[in-house]
Amino acid sequence: MVLVLTGIAIVAGAALAAINAVTAPQIEKINNDNLKAGIVKVLGGGDIQIPEAQEQNGFQFYPTDKGTAVVTTENGFGGKLKILVGFDNEGTVKGYTILEHAETPGLGAKAGDWFQEGGKGCIVGKNPGTCKFAVTKGNEGDIDAITASTITSRAFLKAIQNAYTEFYANK
Length: 171
Description:
The chain is an alpha+beta fold.
């Protein structure tokens, strides 16, 4: 029985490795396409020449003539929360998009919409240098948290604040 189970594990492992080798390039292409589309979106759309990423202290910067897009990561309730945020030249948030998350569906996953323009916790048009990017709970900050998802909200806002701080550290 041990030999049979070992054989099955080896065959299954080999099959998974083969599938990963075949799909990895396509997944990388999709992720790059999503990143490029996200940069255009968070910087207000239009024709944008997307430069190579400039990396510093775990952040990726994409400076353009319409502002700078920054990839930032923070641990949320369910795991890594990876966000692409666009800043104008003064540091005001032009837009954002969630690149990856493992947040609870229906709760923390609402971060994709909650902080958008027109959302209850809108950060678009706000500058982390003049507005306290933390949740209003307990008078910590100026942004409304996602209902029943304070941990995700705190992580999201901390990621944006860290991106802003690093963005202006580079200027």
